[in-house]
Hints:
The complex is a heterodimer of chains A (332) and B (502).
Chain A: H1 2-24, E1 32-36, H2 43-58, E2 65-69, H3 76-84, E3 91-95, H4 98-106, E4 115-124, E5 127-131, H5 139-148, E6 154-158, H6 163-175, E7 180-184, H7 187-195, E8 201-202, H8 206-214, E9 218-223, E10 258-265, H9 270-284, H10 287-295, H11 305-325
Parallel strand pairs in A: 1-2, 1-3, 6-7, 6-8
Antiparallel strand pairs in A: 3-10, 4-10, 5-9
Chain B: H1 2-14, H2 17-35, H3 40-55, H4 61-87, H5 96-107, H6 111-141, H7 149-166, H8 171-185, E1 188-189, E2 196-197, H9 211-230, H10 244-252, H11 257-272, H12 277-291, H13 304-319, H14 321-327, H15 333-345, H16 353-356, H17 358-381, H18 383-388, H19 394-413, H20 416-434, H21 440-463, H22 474-501
Antiparallel strand pairs in B: 1-2
Helix pairs in contact in B: 1-17, 2-4, 2-17, 3-4, 3-15, 4-5, 4-6, 4-13, 4-15, 4-17, 5-6, 5-13, 6-10, 6-11, 6-13, 6-17, 7-12, 7-21, 7-22, 8-21, 9-19, 9-20, 11-12, 11-13, 12-13, 19-20
Amino acid sequence: MKANSIQFLCAAVMAAAPSLVYAQSWEPTKTVEFIIPAGTGGGADQMARAAQAIVAKHGLMKQSMVVVNKAGGAGAEGFLDVKGAHGDPHKIIITLSNLFTTPLATGVPFNWRDLTPVKMLALDQFVLWTNSAKPHKSAKEYIAAAKAAGGKFKMAGTGSKQEDQIITAAIEQQTGTKFIYVPFRGGGDVAVQLVGNHADSTVNNPIEAVAHWRGGKLKPLCVFDPKRMPYKAKVTDTMSWADIPTCKEGGLDVDYLMLRGIFMPGGVTPAQVNYYVELFRKIQATPEWKDLMERGAFNQTSLEGKEYADWVAREEARHVSLMKAAKFIAGQ
Amino acid sequence: MDEIQSLMQGFAIALTLKNVALMFTGIILGVIIGVLPGLGGANGVAILLPLTFSMAQSPGGTTSAIILLSCIYWGALFGGAITSILFNIPGEPWSVATTFDGYPLAQKGRAGAALAAAFTSSFVGALVAVIVITFLSPIVANFALEFGPPEFFAVYLLTFCAFVGMSKEPPFKTLATMMLGFALASVGTDPVTGTLRLTFGSTHLLTGFDFLIAVIGLFGIGEILLTLEEGLAFKGAQAKMNLKVVLETWKELPKYWLTSIRSSVVGCFMGIVPGGATPASFMSYGVARRFSKDGDKFGTGMVEGVVAPETAAHAAGTAALLPMLTLGVPGSPTAAVLLGGLLIWGLQPGPLLFVEQKDFVWGLIASMYLGNIVGLIVVLTCVPLFAAILRVPFSVIAPIIMVICAIGAYTVHNSIFDVWMMLVFGVVGYVFKKLQYPLAPLVLAIVLGDRAESSFRQSMLVAQGDMTVFFSNALVGSLTGLALFLLFWPLLALLIARFRGR
């Protein structure tokens, strides 16, 4: 009887084992394609390439990972590619706000629900910058000056009907000021336009403008995060990222953070999703990643699973209302 | 003479055995990347970027890493000329202008001379640009800050006008093909409103018509179709196969010193601005054709017609690294990837880079000198090898070219649709040649059309629709004025001739 029950147990375990193994561990069997729905050199590109380099350096994957830029149609090219790869576990994509803005602004048929959310890596900050030669000392003063100029102030930003223009529209709605929004191709171009006094302000990401801040050409007025940035190491002689007031403190009640997260195609198994969640946890634990986070002054919120999906759904709703108010939606 | 001292220190850093070995590796990889159409310097550098990540962790490693990557870039600049000259297929956008005279030279059996001239003038262009970077970087770097949207548009206008006004083709045919190019360039995303246009609901057209696919089709496939019709023979078969051809070409080159200087100036200017290597090469070719004594013979296989675009392209490609380092603005797609590399390695490009990372910056500048010398040695010794490709029978090489073209077209967006587009462009190229429509303005418009449009519409936004913005300050005014002068030069010349005739 005893022997029998042991035998029975063994048999049961053995019978269950393959399915157990299947549920808990899956590994890529060929090269994984890491898609960036943006051009080379931008923020998403840098993060994806850094992740790829970390994977290669620390040997975190048995198979290799290749990074592919599919920037066409404000990222629609990349999203459609992943949408079309239903059930393919060898494809992941890093997203930015164009996950929401591109389908709304262009009418290209895709939605984040066509994809499987894997993990939020971080949130990217936006800072209101002006040229240091300008007299404005705070966001409040700047907005007042913009109002006084009667809609002649120029806001340079990356892309059209994307995050930079949405923030600009949110500022306009909040304060009743008008800006001339001028779209450029990349964040670096935008920062230089401001340094060269061809624009009055920008909402560059920290990493795009930090060099000019340190060089004394630009100054930050406020950050569009509800909380101040946590990085206390001095960036310039007198200031750290943590010294930049939030826009809300400065009397400009607008907040915006941009998603840097990972998605997979739809129709993949939980084990496959789990593999990538684990992979990116390992990546986030490396010193190289922490270094990247500090250099770009990222908001290190990192969500997974249901929390992540809920966050994305909330953010989508927010984008719909912001873009509706700004009349950015295709066919509106 | 602070610069000389810093430079010498830079040489000390760059001249280690490891770094020189990396230079050779980079150059050879770059040449291969440059030769394959579609792969491109930007892709090549992007693929290898992660490899340099662990390299950059060791002390002094960032310098080694940038040496490897920038040498790939030099290699690609050199390599782009090879297929342009041998097969009329530009491997890189900036080599399109090299095909105009390079390919006819190869057909005349002077492929060796064309290659030697292209490589040597590339080297000269790069050298001039590096010298400018070495000694004038603080002054020149800030020049790019003067450039807002109107100034950029004026530069693109100047490129177009230099090309149209200097063209020997019938002006209406040039305009017609250029307009077709603009139409193709406007497919995809509208840069100002962000909406899609001219895609007719097709998701394939989202990305617009990529320049490389158009070029591979128009030039490569079109050329093969023409050759098929003319009887399956390569005309360049009697190409010389020894190194003497290099020396003979070198004897000829000093004659073109004025063209070299002009092209270097054009190239440095366009690189620093940063307009990029492609407009530089077109502009320089157009200017050389106008001001050369033998301008009438351009397009029939003149060595000078190879010297002009190659010098300018390489000068611009090199000078483009300056705004990348000092302002964080890349002057070319490849520079954009290098910029991403710097950021990943923990270096922040910007005004302080020259102060805080002296070793890195001067190591890089020293490696520009050395890398280009290494590059010149590598490619020149390979001239006979490249020229020998032309001896392979057409029936063998043509299918290989077709396959390489198809792979190149596929690589651009990993899409099979692009391969079909390439074939369509091939037929268009064939028909255009039969009807004697020039292809160059079409290509130029596809390359620069969207950028020119963006700058124009940005200017209009800034100026609230006021066209006088293009004459609003001395810089933009003189650029626009020069552009208009060049555009109407043929008419003016005609009027002057008539006036004198009376």
